[in-house]
Amino acid sequence: MIHRKKIKEGIYNLLTLWKLQLKKKIRGFYSDQHQLTSTTAVNRYPELFAEVQKIFLSSRNNVEPLILSFGCSTGEECFSLREYFKDAKIIGVDINNRNLRKASRKNNDARIKFLFSSTENIEKEGKYDLIFCLSVLCRWEDTKNVTNCERIYPFQKFEASVKELSNQLLEGGLLVIYNSNFRFEDTTIFGDYEIVKTPSVEDSGFVNKFDANNNLLTDIHTTCIYRKII
Ligand SMILES: C[S@@+](CC[C@H](N)C(=O)[O-])C[C@H]1O[C@@H](n2cnc3c(N)ncnc32)[C@H](O)[C@@H]1O
């Protein structure tokens, strides 16, 4: 009897694992997809949010900012941002429609909007004062144990997306990139930006960083807030 139960459990576990792998593979086929998982939380980056609020208010305190949360998942990031930017209009975009449906169901703030992540939708609402790309421009944890990430998540994909997002950022606006597999400094558009130093916020360090040739970097990267100067 116990033997049968064990076999059943084994088969169940194998099927679950296979289903998970298959799901990951299918989602990986979406060419526009960055991070595959949807993990999120309320006020997930309190130090970072507070720092961006401080920097933004010190330089552009006369505007009601337009904020883009790229990879908003089920909405918690946008609802948290509301606490830091009371007057903002917040656009959350995600590539996963299920996440967007969940986010919309929870939303009772008329100045927060959730949209499918397409160039057209992002452009339609822009241009933005603040763009947040948090835990989205990466493939965690597929890139955890590799020394070259080209086959999993190539640099070109990261660069193409940040370029598109940068086109929608206003001059003087802030681009916030956190938990990414690459350094914004390695992109060809970095010349249009200056780094905003934030000693109180450091990269979490758990998402491996790779260079523009997709090779693993070992030095710690600490910058995550960039101001558009051109
Ligand atoms: C780990 S979650 C991060 C959620 C939130 N930003 C946070 O940090 O709590 C990554 C999200 O990015 C989304 N995503 C992946 N590729 C995307 C793309 N091209 N455009 C918009 N969202 C994308 C995923 O669907 C997922 O919801």
State the helical fraction: 25-40%
Largest sheet: 7 strands, mixed
CATH evolutionary superfamily of the largest domain: Vaccinia Virus protein VP39
In whole angstroms, the N-to-C terminal distance is: 72 Å
Small molecules held by this entry: S-adenosylmethionine
CATH architectural label of the largest domain: 3-Layer(aba) Sandwich
Entry summary:
The chain has helices at 2-28, 46-60, 76-84, 97-106, 119-125, 155-167, and strands spanning 66-70, 89-94, 112-116, 128-134, 169-178, 193-195, 225-228. It is α/β, with parallel strands linked by helices and 230 residues long. The protein starts with a helix and ends with a strand.
Task: Describe the protein.
- The protein is an alpha/beta fold.
- It has 2 domains: 1-30; 37-228, Rossmann fold (3-Layer(aba) Sandwich).
- It is built from 6 helices and 7 strands.
- Helix 6 (155-167) links the parallel strand 4 (128-134) and strand 5.
- The mean pLDDT is 92.
- The structure holds S-adenosylmethionine (SAM).
- S-adenosylmethionine is lined by residues 32-35, 37-40, 44, 70-71, 73, 77, 93-96, 99, 117, 134-136.
- S-adenosylmethionine binds at residues 32-35, 37-40, 44, 70-71, 73, 77, 93-96, 99, 117, 134-136.
What labels describe this entry?
single chain, 230 residues, alpha/beta, Rossmann fold, 2 domains, seven-stranded mixed beta sheet, 6 helices, 7 strands, globular, binds S-adenosylmethionine
